[in-house]
Write a structure and sequence with these properties.
The chain has two domains: 4-266, Spore Coat Polysaccharide Biosynthesis Protein SpsA, Chain A, CATH 3.90.550; 275-412, no CATH class. It is built from 13 helices and ten strands. It has helices at 18-23, 44-50, 71-76, 100-110, 129-139, 161-177, 210-220, 247-266, 272-275, 278-316, 322-345, 353-385, 389-412; strands at residues 4-5, 27-33, 57-64, 80-81, 90-96, 115-120, 143-148, 190-194, 202-203, 228-233.
Length: 419
Amino acid sequence: MSSYILMLNPESKALTDDSKIKKSNKISVVLLTQNPLKPMFQSPHKVMSSIPRELSKEIIVVHYNSRNRTGDFDEALESTKGDAHHPDEKILHVRVEGEFASGVMKGVELSLGKYILVMDADLPYSRDIIPELVSALIANPNFIIVASRFVKDAHVRQIPFIQNAIGKTARIIARYGLKIKNVKDPTSACFAFSRDVVKDIKFEGKGKEALLEILVKINSNRNNNNVSVKEIPIKQHDTVITRKLDRNRIVNYSKDVWQLYRYGIKSKPNNSDDLAKPERKLSKSVTFLSKAGRFFTVGASGLAVNYAASFLLTSLIPNIWYIHATLFGIILSITSNFILNKIWTFEDRNFSPRHFFKQYALFLALCTLGAVIQLSLVFAFVEYFNIQYAVSLLLAVIIASLSNFLLNKKITFGEKIWE
């Protein structure tokens, strides 16, 4: 799906006159769901009733990932219009084959409101958050309002340790890799903004991280220097976990982050002070990406050695404990990884014994830390989550390796992290 400017709505003549939008206080709620027949938690009628009556409003229910749906599903998607007292209020159902961000993109495209509220209807947000988001947005039209799980007074059901750790890693990547430092919950699926705030953003609507894409592109747009973020604490009482964090979500998040990181590199500042040093900035970015690519290429070779050795041992020696097999695979890959990273990734040609063994000791210590994390994760996945060993091993190796690059870059090879 091609990108477009969020201000545009080619299917509505109402938006051809921007003055009508600016004078309106209409709220457009983009309600997203994957459920074949209806949203799991937030029904459009209840969401409608949660918005103050004095405000004009519309609900656009976007059923994303809707490929291969049945006729019963089509019959359930009956759009409704407002009553005689509120003729402009409507509930519109649309289908989108893409992921969450594609659904957001379609919903915004069809919206008529000056203010837009995006909410994942399949997640247990309290409807009490809706009037709070709307009130905060109207009071702060130059803000993006985010329903946050990680600010003071937020209340969410406790999630498993592994899922929580992966979530924290994702937020750290967003904070330092994408420079989203003013938002504690950049992957929230409930947020609101005014049309003016995002009018100059080319939203591509790929993947699952709609808010993250908007935040990155606003930060990269020099016309949006006055845009701020306000986070409102979420309240979730007596709810159950409805969406597990699977391998596909991790892979998709990694792809989204990589694409947004590349977008940030390609975005060129327009003021003369920043243009004075373009080659230096580009050089740092290219150098960082080059070394990251080399490090993870080496890591991939180590992953192959690690995984193959561990898995082969469990296959060839039936009575071996999987923890022993995993430990053997870790040790076997450490030395090859160190030598390859020293020579190729960081181009360190100092092979004096003292320097070499000092670096190797540091590398070994950091790898040991990663090994402890990996072993703990493998044990937890197998024993407590009943995940197959092959899958558990792969997930644990990936998670443990994320920190190795930055730590070894800084500590072992004495380089600045972000250069």
